[in-house]
Automatic annotation (TrEMBL):
InterPro entries: NarG-like_sf
Gene3D superfamilies named in the record: Transmembrane di-heme cytochromes, Chain C (1.20.950.20)
Position of the signal peptide: none
Listed name of the protein: Tricarballylate utilization protein TcuB
Keyword Transmembrane helix belongs to the record: yes
Listed SUPFAM superfamilies: Respiratory nitrate reductase 1 gamma chain
Annotated source species: Acinetobacter baumannii
Transmembrane residue ranges: 42-63, 75-97, 117-134, 140-160
Sorted UniProt keywords: Membrane, Transmembrane, Transmembrane helix
Length: 186
């Protein structure tokens, strides 16, 4: 299998987010569970669905001359709503696990940054869902400004927060696939 394909498969399945033994991560009571992996999947795929919704809406706007707000059962709205739900549930679950985690588990100085990032993800997605729910009301303009401000804040802070680890992890999985192939050569 080509290296890039192998790395992409590993990224999309979160293959190595299993605690190193397949049983998952330790949570508060020290037992192994896959729940952190599930919340990561919801977060990742929620983000990807929201990204796809934005891409489709861009195509609608610039190439099909269809302008927002789109009908409830249109592709951008369906993708954005499903993605928004994933981006509320996933980060909320990760925040819950982070808050109930043993204080010595993880980097104490990093926790406020991690929690701030998780809260920002929840705020971005929740504001998008609220905007969707109130889009035909007089509050739409204010809600749109608030939502776009949270989205802009998210992208401005992206290189400095937890989100950047997704890019680094993807790069390391590609390197791992390449090194695995090279080490198998005679």
């Amino acid at each position: 299998k080509p290296d890039l394909l192998q790395a992409t498969q590993n990224v999309l399945t979160l293959k190595y987010l299993d605690g190193g033994h397949g049983k998952g991560c330790n949570e508060q009571d020290d037992r192994y569970t896959q729940i952190r992996r599930v919340f990561h999947h919801l977060t990742f795929y929620g983000f990807m669905l929201c990204f796809a919704a934005t891409g489709v809406a861009t195509l609608y706007h610039y190439f099909l001359d269809l302008h927002a707000p789109y009908p409830i059962f249109s592709l951008p709205v369906i993708l954005g709503t499903l993605g928004g739900i994933g981006l509320v549930v996933g980060p909320a679950g990760l925040l819950y696990l982070n808050l109930k985690r043993h204080p010595l588990h993880g980097d104490r100085e990093q926790k406020p940054v991690d929690r701030g990032f998780i809260f920002l993800l929840i705020l971005v997605s929740a504001s998008g869902l609220v905007l969707m729910a109130f889009r035909n009301t007089p509050y739409m303009a204010l809600l749109l400004i608030f939502h776009l401000a949270t989205v802009m804040t998210f992208f401005i802070t992206m290189p400095f927060g937890k989100f950047a680890h997704g890019f680094y992890r993807s790069a390391s999985l590609l390197k791992f696939a390449i090194e695995g192939r090279i080490s198998k050569k005679p």
